[in-house]
Write a structure and sequence with these properties.
Elements: E1 10-14, H1 17-20, H2 33-38, H3 56-70, E2 74-78, H4 81-84, H5 94-109, E3 113-119, H6 125-128, H7 136-153, E4 159-164, H8 166-174, H9 186-211, E5 217-221, E6 226-228, H10 234-257, H11 262-267, H12 281-285, E7 291-295, E8 300-304, E9 331-333, H13 350-362, E10 368-373, H14 393-411, E11 416-422, E12 441-443, E13 450-452, H15 454-465
Parallel strand pairs: 1-2, 1-11, 2-3, 3-4, 4-5, 5-7, 6-8, 7-10, 10-11
Antiparallel strand pairs: 8-9, 12-13
């Protein structure tokens, strides 16, 4: 069946600064929490760091050429906060601003809309040493950082995205410690949740004060599709409610509803009293949202269990020491049958259409964009096939089925404006180092050569035509 998209539907790819740039000690950049974390023994697989990554800092121009060859209409990238403000606040680094200005102008010259993410997890280390996201002052430092970028880049940015996946920043960074800064403090993690929400609202206000109300402001959330092992079980339904509160309500609530879910506050009460929420904060966090970015990879399956048994398990985010799921120790994450990606995540495209429809019903009139979707599979380290290509049929199948899920949501009335494949190229996958490959462009980490995988040819055809190709259509 022919599956067409609207003519103005935005096709793009996405990256993050620390995952691709390298050049960590160049151009006046200061250290970030990921520099410190990745250089701490035992934190990342094989001791990998982002010191060089894909060397995008030096290869940005040719990487933009690859985007132009792909035929995408937009590129979602992030700015490294410590490249702009090496200490997190104070003196501005002109070299850093000039670097991103070249990227923005280079995209526009190629007819590609810049989707700028202000924060994709690389907090300046100097701010972490003052308390990081557990400190209220970090939210105000972030607003000033946003103001600097808005003043410089103004209307050249198509969409301003404040935060990428604050769930990860707060819970994985401050509760389980499997992401930078590597802390295991539930109270700090919950404070980080609120201060990230506050930072979003303050940044939105700063951007519009500099550019005007026409500035399009967004946030990107990795909203969880949570399913009950037994929908008829009251305990399992309660487990779903708790995980949804921690994963989704903790951000959708203050950003779009103006309140935190009651179940979130009650289940986390043993860890904090939420006194870090000040009068007037929730008016700030509920800034006007022009588009909501949605990142989706897979659903989770939960059931009720004896306290102390669950809250990590098969969600892929727990570890032996601490869980990101604060107050949900009576929830067990279950392994799911079927095919999984190299990350161990189950493949279920129906979850994406389910999520888009749920958001459309809950927030009618709010445009949505799928700002990340993709899969890691065990691609070769070097392109050694006879035809010099990477035949990543699993990734094409994954992308095909998830793009089809977007069509299903559109057909049911969801207002979805765009889709961004994660990722443009293989890169530093956080604590997994360089062991997981998500890119549609293959990167040889010895030579840093980029090679189109079959998925890149497939995605290029989709982006250029707006018609969903068959799985076998790779050119």
């Amino acid at each position: 069946m022919r599956r067409d998209f609207p003519a103005d539907f935005l096709w793009g790819t996405a990256t993050a600064a620390y995952q691709i740039e390298g050049g960590v000690n160049e151009g006046g950049r200061g250290p970030s929490i990921w520099d410190v974390y990745s250089h701490t023994p035992g934190r990342t697989l094989g001791g990998d760091t982002g010191d060089i990554a894909c060397d995008h800092y030096h290869r940005w121009d040719s990487d933009l050429d690859e985007l132009e060859r792909l035929g995408v209409g937009a590129y979602r990238f992030s700015v490294s906060w410590p490249r702009i403000l090496p200490s997190g606040r104070g003196e501005v680094n002109e070299e850093g601003l000039a670097f991103y200005e070249r990227i923005i102008d280079g995209l526009r010259a190629r007819g590609i809309a810049p989707i700028l993410t202000l924060y994709h997890w690389d907090l300046p280390q100097a701010l972490e040493e003052e308390g990081g996201w557990a400190s209220r002052s970090t939210a105000f430092a972030f607003a000033e950082y946003a103001r600097i970028l808005a003043r410089r880049f103004a209307d050249r940015v198509h969409v301003w995205t404040t935060l990428n996946e604050p769930w990860c920043s707060a819970y994985l960074g401050y509760a389980s410690g499997v992401h930078a800064p590597g802390r295991q403090d539930p109270a700090a993690a919950l404070a980080a949740v609120h201060h990230l929400n506050l930072a979003h609202g303050l940044a939105a206000r700063a951007i519009r004060e500099e550019i005007g109300q026409e500035a399009r402001v967004s946030v990107t959330l990795n909203l969880h599709v949570v399913r009950a092992a037994d929908p008829a079980s009251a305990g399992d339904r309660r487990a779903v409610e708790q995980i949804e509160a921690l994963a989704n309500g903790a951000f959708l609530g203050p950003m779009l509803d103006g309140a935190y879910p009651e179940v979130l506050v009650s289940m986390t009460a043993p860890h904090c009293d939420w006194s870090f929420v000040h009068e007037g904060d929730l008016e700030v966090t509920r800034a006007r949202m022009d588009v909501l970015g949605v990142n989706y990879y897979s659903p989770v399956l939960v059931r009720a269990c004896e306290p102390g048994v669950g809250a990590s398990g098969a969600d892929g985010h727990g570890n032996s020491d601490a869980s990101p799921w604060i107050g949900a120790d009576g929830v067990e994450f279950l392994a799911q049958p079927g095919v999984h990606t190299d990350m161990g995540w189950p493949i279920d495209a129906s979850g994406l259409s389910e999520l888009l429809m749920s958001l459309s019903r809950r927030y009618p009139g709010l445009p949505l964009m799928v700002t990340e979707n993709g899969a890691a599979f065990p691609d070769p380290e070097r392109v050694d096939s006879p035809d010099g290509r990477v035949h990543d049929v699993q990734r094409i199948a994954y992308l095909h089925d998830h793009v089809a899920a977007v069509v299903d949501a559109l057909d049911q009335g969801a207002d979805v404006r765009g889709y961004f494949a994660w990722s443009l190229m293989d890169n530093f996958e956080w604590a997994y180092g360089y062991s997981k490959r998500f890119g549609i462009l293959h990167v040889d980490y010895e030579t840093l050569e980029r090679t189109w995988k079959d998925s890149a040819h497939w995605y290029s055809r989709l982006a250029r035509t707006g018609v969903l190709p068959g799985i076998d259509a790779v050119r």
